[in-house]
């Protein structure tokens, strides 16, 4: 956490690391977002002063409440505004009294509605805030998530900090991405949902994350931009410093219409965005799943600057599909070299000349226990730049023996990954079991072993298609960095 006595705090430090937070419209009614934002500060362990503001309550959630922001003792770094739009203009006057640095306007129903009266009110809010020196995040956004400081905009986000910084115009998309990526071991330094961006915009947040030592990767979702030149300068500089993975929302006609009603942004030409991203080295993805796949690789793997892929595990059909999908994704699946075959001969004397890349586990028979030695051989080989290990989720063995085999394979994958001799990726089951299916030992075992891989930081995918598609983009990024 930024020291409280720091003298040269940047503007956004007051939002990411506030010393005191006021929640305007704090409530004990769970249908109110004034309840939820106050509850988040409590549940995530915010260590500074919390000031609920509600003119009708003496306390909210057992914390002393104040009728107005102006009645709060001392200064306030950060304000979370959960009241209606018509109450924002007078609130700004109280912000000046309390020396508020940043205010998050969860408040919505402004320019995104397209209504002339709402558009005019938003302009008045922007003009007055600018004149008074109050910096606004939003309106119409979820605001700030900073696990280091105990600040959050949703339930179920990790309290443990990580290395991914998030700048999303959409709060719902940001929440969903963080929650689902967390299941795959991703942790976050900080996140901002910035909505209509009438003051603090996407470029300001990108600039902050580009310089933030706790952020090593930037994940971004844009629907439109406020200042084209400013954005280009910011995204170029950020991409020169660290990986930037971005989604452009509103690529088609229907998406463009949805953008205007969501955040009042100007979507812009899809081809212009694609050209700009390519020019600056930004990795463009199409959806949240693809973004998460890339975050898994950038968070877990060392750079990969070659396309030669070794594929181990699974039956013959899985190997054929894996090879096809890898080549279609732009990767190479080279045959085993004479040197590797010579090394395989003493390990698997009965089948050494039968094996190829991908390695087919279905023909091993009683030699399955030697899988670890073959894993080691592939990982140490100079013939491959990266290894994909497919866990035997397709094995037709009796369940009790199959469980042992899967555990042994996962043990070996974790050990190979920890050695860091070569980048290792795991693929474990493309199935999507339902809740009741987890009573079955097969699906329960797959979930347990996936959790072990995730806990060991091994990049793990549900299908070979997802793995090779993400790997190809990952390699492309590092090839440009040669």
Strand percentage lies at 5-15%
What's the number of helices?
16
Structural class, by secondary structure, is alpha/beta
**Helix content class:** 40-55%
Strand arrangement across the biggest beta sheet: 8-10-9-11-12-13
- What's the alpha carbon Rg, rounded to whole Å? 26 Å
Q: Identify the overall geometry.
A: elongated
Overall CATH class of the largest domain: Alpha Beta
CATH superfamily of the largest domain: Succinyl-CoA synthetase domains
- Tell me the CATH topology of the largest domain: Rossmann fold
Task: Please count the beta strands (DSSP E, at least 2 residues each).
Answer: 17
Largest sheet: 6 strands, mixed
- Overall mean pLDDT: 90
Distance from N terminus to C terminus (CA atoms, Å) equals 35 Å
Describe it.
41% of the residues lie in helices and 15% in strands. The chain has 482 residues and is an alpha/beta fold. The chain has three domains: 13-140, Rossmann fold (3-Layer(aba) Sandwich); 161-300, Succinyl-CoA synthetase domains (Rossmann fold, 3-Layer(aba) Sandwich); 309-480, Rossmann fold (3-Layer(aba) Sandwich). The strands form four sheets. The protein has a six-stranded mixed β-sheet with strand order 8-10-9-11-12-13, with helices on both faces. A five-stranded parallel β-sheet has the order 2-1-5-6-7, with helices on both faces. β11, α7 and β12 form a beta-alpha-beta unit. α11 (316-328) packs parallel to α16, α12 (338-347) packs antiparallel against α13 and α13 (371-380) packs parallel to α14 (399-419). The longest helix has 21 residues, at 399-419. The protein starts with 12 loop residues before the first helix and ends with a helix. Residues 1-8 and 252-267 have low confidence and may be disordered.
């Amino acid at each position: 956490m930024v020291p409280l006595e720091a003298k040269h705090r940047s503007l956004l430090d007051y939002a990411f690391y506030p010393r005191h937070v006021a929640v305007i419209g704090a409530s004990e009614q769970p249908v109110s977002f004034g309840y939820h934002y106050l509850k988040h500060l409590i549940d995530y362990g915010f260590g500074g002063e919390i000031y609920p503001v509600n003119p009708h309550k003496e306390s909210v959630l057992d914390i002393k409440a104040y009728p107005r922001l102006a009645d709060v003792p001392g200064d306030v770094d950060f304000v979370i505004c959960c009241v209606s739009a018509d109450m924002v203009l007078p609130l700004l006057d109280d912000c000046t009294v309390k020396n508020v640095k940043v205010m998050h306007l969860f408040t919505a129903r402004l320019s995104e509605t397209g209504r002339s009266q709402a558009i005019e009110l938003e302009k008045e809010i922007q003009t007055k805030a600018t004149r008074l020196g109050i910096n606004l995040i939003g309106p119409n956004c979820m605001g700030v998530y900073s696990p280091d400081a105990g600040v959050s905009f949703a339930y179920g986000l990790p309290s443990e900090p990580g290395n991914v910084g998030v700048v999303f115009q959409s709060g719902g998309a940001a929440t969903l991405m963080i929650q689902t990526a967390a299941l795959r071991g991703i942790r976050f330094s900080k996140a901002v949902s910035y909505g209509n961006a009438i003051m603090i915009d996407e470029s300001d947040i990108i600039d902050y994350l580009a310089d933030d030592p706790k952020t090593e990767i930037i994940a971004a979702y844009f629907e439109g931009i406020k200042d084209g030149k400013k954005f280009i300068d910011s995204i170029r500089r950020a991409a020169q410093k660290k990986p930037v993975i971005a989604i452009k929302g509103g690529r088609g006609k229907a998406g463009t219409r949805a953008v205007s009603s969501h955040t009042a942004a100007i979507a812009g030409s899809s081809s212009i965005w694609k050209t700009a991203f390519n020019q600056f080295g930004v990795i463009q993805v199409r959806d949240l799943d693809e973004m998460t796949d890339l975050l898994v690789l950038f968070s877990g793997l060392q750079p990969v600057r070659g396309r030669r892929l070794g594929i181990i595990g699974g039956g013959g059909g899985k190997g054929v599909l894996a090879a096809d999908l890898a080549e279609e994704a732009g990767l190479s699946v080279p045959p085993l070299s004479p040197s590797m075959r010579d090394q395989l001969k003493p390990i698997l004397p009965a089948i050494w000349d039968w094996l190829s890349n991908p390695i087919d586990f279905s023909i091993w028979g009683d030699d399955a226990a030697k899988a670890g030695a073959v894993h080691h051989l592939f990982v140490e080989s100079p013939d491959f730049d990266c290894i994909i290990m497919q866990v035997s989720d397709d094995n037709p063995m009796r369940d009790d023996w199959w469980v042992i085999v899967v555990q042994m394979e996962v043990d070996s994958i974790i050990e190979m990954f920890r050695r860091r001799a070569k980048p290792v990726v795991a693929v474990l089951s493309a199935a999507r079991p339902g809740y009741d299916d987890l009573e079955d030992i097969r699906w329960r075992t797959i979930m347990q072993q996936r959790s072990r891989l995730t806990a060991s930081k091994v990049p793990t995918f549900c299908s070979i298609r997802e793995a090779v598609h993400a790997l190809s983009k990952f390699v492309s990024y590092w090839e440009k960095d040669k």
